[in-house]
Specification:
Oligomer: single chain
Cofactor: Zn(2+)
Order of helices and strands: HEHEEHEHHEEEHHEHHEEHEHEHHHHH
Enzyme class: hydrolase
Number of helices: 16
Catalytic activity: Releases a C-terminal residue, which may be hydrophobic or positively charged
Largest sheet: 8 strands, mixed
GO cellular component, one term: extracellular space
Number of strands: 12
Strand content: 5-15%
Structural class: alpha/beta
Keywords: Carboxypeptidase, Hydrolase, Metal-binding, Metalloprotease, Protease, Signal, Zinc
Number of domains: 3
Length: 486
């Protein structure tokens, strides 16, 4: 009896035939493994498979063509996403034009240097460290007095922790460009530059990015030479908070190798030292892909961080701009030693990761639309940095949506994020306003503000200050009433 070839056979044959003429990269294909349980997904992650995307019940995995049949034998549904990655990559590079192309390390530096020359009053360029291959890690500061530390709310925007995620450099660069070109032309952008210190590190991992663009498109790590002769550490598994507890490999050859120790890498040391100096109020680290907005915790899915409600609020607000899905990072999979957990746990920065785009390697014509989709979300976080929750910018009402005790309590409990700058003054005005409300409520027989304060510990600094102010207001009102002329 004859056996008819299956559709999978035709697909595999086509991939093998196409790859026969590919001289640059090893034979690779991107497939979707569907119908997976969370345990299966974590196991494939633990085994070190090159996972490009995590879904609710699927993974998209870069495989050698020979590995594909092994997965089908396990009874898994295997669907080709990009059957011939090598050919696709070649087509992507060929599609680059002068108007639509990815930044290289050199063109990124040249562009930022041009900005400094064109806008010297509102930006400066600084090397925050050197890489293993002696490249500078460049940081661009945008502010109305870029040479001065004005103690304004500081924000950090990062890209390219992972070398092959080229699109992750594009959004930071596009955001910086929008701020510089809009200064003096657009009221909102001008205000952001005047009232914030905005730092951009568009290429945290320039060694890896350069290697990905010139040698191996699939390269993910940096270019440290490991003790066993292999190369590279995953920078986004090398930060010091909960390093090595989950989602990272101890094998130097693995794509998620965590490194020999926390902050063993020059790239993560550079970000650590910049954050220690600048005390960022908020930050975004760009990655790809999946159209997600992620926030702490990353290291565990067994618990939520202390300020989960605040992260959820801002994630939802930013998602309204780019139509991404906002969620706790570990809802995908737990991973220790990443930027979000470190910057939040250490500096109480409002830390997010954006997973850009819907495809493994966006074509050049998608760069501009992806940037246009995400820059407004970045600007929103920059605007909110240092004025969290329901506190609005200078010149506008400080209080909004305080109709319920829970809303008041949520706002009062944002004080851990207050940086030592104009936010302190805003919180003081908020304190006085809430004290006035407490006095007015007491006079009118209302209890909303008192109920809100009761949700906080009796020794909470903000609660004590509000109750003290209210007592002083009542005392002043009594004295004023008793001594007033008839």
């Amino acid at each position: 009896m004859s056996r008819r070839p299956t559709p999978f056979f035709f697909w595999l044959f086509a991939v093998l035939l196409a790859l026969a003429g590919s001289p640059v990269f090893a034979a690779k294909t991107l497939v979707r493994l569907e119908g997976l349980t969370p345990a299966q997904m974590q196991e494939y992650h633990r085994q070190g498979y090159d996972i490009a995307r995590y879904g609710k019940d699927f993974l998209e995995v870069v495989l050698e063509v020979a590995e594909v049949r092994a997965f089908t034998k396990r009874g898994l549904r295997v669907t080709p996403v990009i059957p011939d990655l090598d050919r696709y990559i070649a087509e992507v590079r060929a599609a680059e034009t002068a108007e639509a192309k990815y930044y290289t390390y050199q063109t990124m530096y040249e562009t930022m240097q041009t900005w400094v020359e064109k806008y010297p009053k509102i930006c400066r360029l600084e090397s925050i460290g050197k890489t293993f291959e002696n490249r500078d890690i460049w940081a661009l500061k945008i502010s109305d007095h870029p040479q001065v530390d004005e103690k304004e709310p500081a924000v950090l925007i990062m890209g390219a922790h992972h070398a092959r995620e080229w699109i992750s450099t594009e959004v930071p660069m596009a955001t910086a460009k929008a701020l510089l070109e809009g200064y003096g032309q657009d009221e909102r952008l001008t205000r952001l530059v005047n009232e914030r210190e905005i730092w951009f590190v568009p290429m945290v991992n320039p060694d890896g990015m350069t290697y990905s663009q010139t040698v191996n498109r699939y390269w993910r790590k940096n270019r440290r030479k490991n003790a066993d002769g292999s190369f590279g550490v995953d920078p986004n598994r090398n930060y010091g908070y909960k390093w090595g507890v989950a989602g990272a490999s101890t094998s130097p050859s693995a794509d998620t190798y965590q490194g020999p120790s926390p902050f063993s890498e020059l790239e993560t040391q550079a970000i650590r030292d910049l954050a220690a100096r600048e005390k960022f109020s908020a930050d975004i680290s760009f990655h790809s892909y999946s159209e997600l907005i992620l926030y702490p915790w990353s290291w565990t899915n067994k618990e939520k961080c202390e300020h989960d409600a605040i992260f959820a609020k801002f994630g939802k607000e930013m998602a309204a701009f780019n139509r991404y899905t906002s969620q706790q990072s570990s809802d995908l999979y737990p991973s220790g030693g990443d930027t979000d957990d470190y910057l939040y746990a250490t500096h109480k920065s409002l830390s997010f990761t954006f997973e850009l785009a819907t495809t493994f390697i966006p074509t050049p014509d998608k760069i501009a639309p992806i940037c246009a989709q995400n820059v407004p979300a970045v600007l929103h976080l920059i605007e909110k940095a240092g004025t969290y929750g329901l506190v609005t910018p200078v010149g506008e009402d400080l209080i909004a949506d305080l109709d319920t005790p829970s809303a008041v309590a949520a706002l009062v409990d944002l004080t851990p994020f207050a940086s030592q700058n104009d936010v302190a003054a805003r919180l003081r005005r908020l304190e006085v306003e809430l004290a006035r409300r407490l006095v007015a409520d007491q006079a009118a027989g209302r209890t909303a503000t008192a109920e809100a304060l009761a949700q906080l510990p009796s020794d909470h600094p903000m609660r004590r200050a509000i109750e003290r102010d209210a007592a002083q207001m009542l005392a002043f009102a009594t004295v004023h009433r008793d001594t007033a002329r008839p």
